[in-house]
User: Fold Gliding motility-associated C-terminal domain-containing protein from Rhodocytophaga aerolata.
Amino acid sequence: MDFNQSPPQVTIDPQAPQVFSQQLASICDNEGNLLFYTDSQTVWNKQNQVMANGTNIGGERLRKVIIIPAPGKAGKYYIFTLGFINAVGDYFIDQHLVYALVDVEANNGAGAVLEKNKILYKNLHGSFTISAKCANDIYWLVGETNESVVSGIATDRIYAYRIDANGVSESPIISSPIRMSSSGGYKFSPTSDKLVFSYEGTGPSATVIADFDQLTGKVTNLRRIASCCAHVAEFSSNGTMLYLSQDSTLLQFDMRNGDQNAILNSRNVISNSGSYIGGLQLAPDGKIYISRANTKALSVIEKPEQPGEECMYTPGGLPLGTDAPYYLPSFASNLLYNSPVNRALAGEDKILCVNESIRLGNVSQANTTYRWEPANFLTDATSANPTFQYTNPTDTVVVLTYQVTVNDGICPRSDVVHVTVHPLPNPPQIIGNLVVCPGTQGVSYQVENATPESTYKWNIQRGTILAGQGTQGILVNWDSIRVDASIEVIATNAAGCTSQTLLQVRVTERLKPGIPQGATQLCLSNKDGQVYNVPYTNGSLYTWGIKGGVLLSGQGTAQVTVNWDSEGIHQLWLQEDNRTAKASCYGTSDTLTVTVEATPFSLNLNFVSIPTEKNNQVQVQGQISGFFDFTDSVRIYRRQQGAVNWMKVASIRPTDTLFTYVDEEITSENNPYAYKLAGLTMCNEPVESTIHQTIRLSATVTEAMNQIHLSWNAYEGWGNRLAVYQVWRRVDEETDYTVWATLPADVLTYTSADITDGFIHHYRIKAVEHTTGYESWSTTATLEFLHALGIPNVFTPNGDGTNDTFEIKNIHLYPENELVIYNRWGREIYRKQNYEGNWQAEGMQNGIYFYEFSTKQLATYRKGMVQILR
Assistant:
């Protein structure tokens, strides 16, 4: 039956084997293409070939078989079926449930059975069913066991086996909701929270609805809905309706109210005529198909979710052209669940620009919740179709992935959408004269930061474009006197994103030339030959004025060359004159101030320090004063102690007057490292900082004297401004370091007798500079000690002040302990938790005693003998 078509097409494959079996099962991919099928004894692939190792898989052809995807194992599937271990005449005993594992991708797609005849359990006493809630890769197999004959149990019980990415559990979850002697007809609802079955018991037999907990595997809350026993049951695709057969009668129950009386009161007789009903099965098209004995068609329930006659029961609705099977194949019910949420819709992938907005998702559905992750840049993360707007500035393409989870209250579904955000082009900067004479022709305007991949559209107010539309520069003819003239340029990059700039222009007789452009901070070495200019306006005459320098060339034009005098503050300005057919115009610029200095440059290192306990970083902080060459910047150099050559490790922009850099390419515990700054000024003068060197700490131990020895190299770079060295320590689980000692600047060693303060000691040295408080941390030195317990075998509690207590060496390091003392007859005479070594054997006679000493830290205990001598 091909459900890719409606109604489903019934075909016979002439290449398929002719198999006599009442139980068959098949499995397809998501597009409905056949993968393989089985009769519970043999497995055939989609080419109708027996799979490798695909015979005698352990089933019996008269019994149920179900195929499910193997959770967490792509391309692999489980086959569960029933068989018998023994048979006596026509009577079968020892019914057992077996499974096999199939790999459809093995043998170049021909498939193979990897495992077979795997017995799950041997005393199944009825049928079984399988389902998973919301296809969440955790399945449950539920069936009954024949334990009513077992002494001490005396009832059949329901076993549930969990099937997940770890495989098929061998330990069942056992439920015994009612005393029964046999049961059958087990069927999960598509939502997997309900279970229907029939049973015979010590009292009235019944068909019941039960609750099933997908987390625990427990079966509870049985509600009787019909008498027992040979019923076939099926749920509608959303689990709201249950259909039950009684011989040839077809019944319907409404499951939306879980109360037993409500279910019983909803009972509808859908059909009470026709032959015996052998099978009810929900299909992928959401319809329920019914197999009746001695017919050549399947009856159909067209709309199983509708109550009563509205379910549209059609006798013989699907002709088969051959005898209808007595049974119909069974499937994991969750695979056929039809949620009111057909699927989650995050929408098509989006491409847009920074600051643009767009809707994600789809139309909201009733009784449904939505959750978008992440929520960044969304107007409402709980909406079905929130608005997305990316407002962060960016120079690169940003790709964001959003997942929407749609939940109908039973099963969540998810979908993702990718949003690609392209950066805006840099806002175009327009160069040109902002004040022009009325009637001026061919005035040039340019985009200063133009990029080759961008195009430019110009708009002119109160003027006309003479040439250049679509390029980075235009020529403009201006009209009569106007105060509302303007130029707008719109830049569009390759992704179609735009930025725009509007420039106000005054068309007036009173000109205002721009301030001269050129160097304003100069060294003595490059004060001569400096070039200054203003935007040129066609037809204008430029008269330059200067104070503190000499005009070498360019008088009358928009660009001049200047030799400045010696150190000091100097000035440059100009007057612009323009005569057109409409007006005579003039105006004077603002004055440019130029400073010539001798040596306005310096580089300083404040400190170098080891910022973490990992010893694999050095923090470098420094300051830059003056103006340095942007093409070379300021460089940080490093060399290892004892090395001659310096290695460049980073460049710092000269605009970062105070900077911090972390060097992550070192191993500071091996050697100290020296650092310096170097750069070229704008006058091509080399400048270097003083050299600073890190501190490397070493630690040794003299255990016989209970001493720790620390030594370190001197910090270099502060000279006589180094104030003190501080010894900092952290022991065991302490989170913070504390100051352990403060030493003068000329002391580079420290010895302490604190070895027994803990098992793991961490030490660091901090150098402190006295004028600014700058700090430099050393590498970390770590020492580990065993600190074994020392338990004496004799002590003398005679009050002489020597050996008066049962003192255990290092006991202060094991505070969570317990000491118990026994006499020679095994009677407990002393017990103390958190023992501190102060027992004096009060009231005890001299002699031999026995102890047990346990500690939480060691997770064990010690036993021994101690003698008391007074």
Notes: The mean pLDDT is 90. The CA atoms of residues 439 and 543 lie 21 Å apart. Helices lie at 260-265.
